[in-house]
Fold each of these.
Amino acid sequence: MTDQATLAAKTCVPCKGGVPRLDPDQARDLIGGVEGWELNDDATRISRTFKFKDFAEAQAFASRVGELAEAQFHHPEITFGWGYCRVEFQTRKIRGLHENDFIMAAKMNGLVGRRDTGS
């Protein structure tokens, strides 16, 4: 099993398509390395709902998620509201999961608890 620190240290490699998606066994192995994330039934998506004390914290987290996703060129579906932010990954070009999805999940976990510095 690949651990969260190993995954978080990696950089996403843009997927051009034409590569196989992870099979369910590979996805189950990688999901164990990203605390709090869930694998959907057909092993084609991962998601996590992060909890916050209010709307402002959820919104700030969603913004940090977006900034990191843009920097890594790997973009999730983000839904947020009062006290929560749900993040979901799937590599659209292959209609399934790629290691990049798990790299990003590990990086998202690293954002939890970080404060906005205004920069």
Amino acid sequence: MPAYSVIEGVKLGENVKLFSFVNLFGCEIGDSTKIGCFVEIKKGVRVGKNCKIEPFAFIPEGVTIGDGVFIGPHVCFTNDKYPAAVNPDGSPKSASDWSLKETVVEDNVSIGAGSVILPGLRIGKAAVIGAGSVVTKDVAPGATVVGNPAREMRK
């Protein structure tokens, strides 16, 4: 039997396939989505139907993923534009000391292996993010972006 952790509040659609060592926290996963091993998906994330999330992807709070999206291995989404462990006075940061920036990935997007998606962005329908890209701004529907920072190659 696979070893995965589905924490309270997770909504799994029909025919969802989870591989070993997946951690799901209060998220929603659409029908027929496949989630590879060592993936972590945090509270409030919505993943559409017929998605494929490859091993070692990290999807934090504030991310919404449409239908038919491919997320390659080691893709990392972020949700804090100015991350830090402590405040300027040296006190540990708490939940109230940061601002969540929401990210939307529209339908039929493909995100290549090792890409990093910075917070507060929209990746348009059917866009392609090349492997290893660092996405720092919105991506237009149908666009292909590559590099660090990711730049548009073609529409």
Amino acid sequence: MNTEKSKLLEYVKANNRICPIPTEWNKLYQLLKNTKRKGGGWEPALPLILAAWWETSEIQKVLRFIDHIEWAESNGQLEEISKFLFELKEEEWHHLGE
């Protein structure tokens, strides 16, 4: 794993962070390049926001969020996405148990 990705993953997991709050997670998803319709859904899958926010577990949110980071990396956007995430205020993150 590259150093930049390691630092990002360490950061997003610090302070019991799960994922960005829905508005910020949607902004992150909008930054992702090469998203596309696939079957009845999207690739990568949409963020777990709106009704899905209340219907999914914290682990499901973490896994989907990590999928989005992986997508950014595979599309040459790790630096851009890292900058976005490092600039979020702590209150713009969803934390374990909230």
Amino acid sequence: MVTTKMGKILLVEDTLSEMELMSHYLRESGYLVINAITAQEGIEKAIEQKPDAIVTDVVMPGMSGFELCRSLKKNPNTANVPIVICTSKNQEIDRLWGMKQGADAYVTKPFTREQLLRAVKSVLV
């Protein structure tokens, strides 16, 4: 187990298998991972736990990842936390819309371990 403190990542993903895979990749690389299954839970955990970055899916029940981005960027407690969108929505218009909502990086599924880690590292700089 890697114990170096590289940063705290909040992972918002409603698909358990995706969450487990991403959590594994991030933990293996030395990040502390906090999981949230819904966008609303993500907002609460972002405010309480002050992560260094947030990785979110887009298509989730209730509030989408795009709406989550907007909410986090409007809240003074979370406005400066970088957000990585990780989604199967792979059209250029989706990417542009995600960035317009406040995302700092955009990764499309299926992704490799390297793509995910590169995106997370790029927003933590």
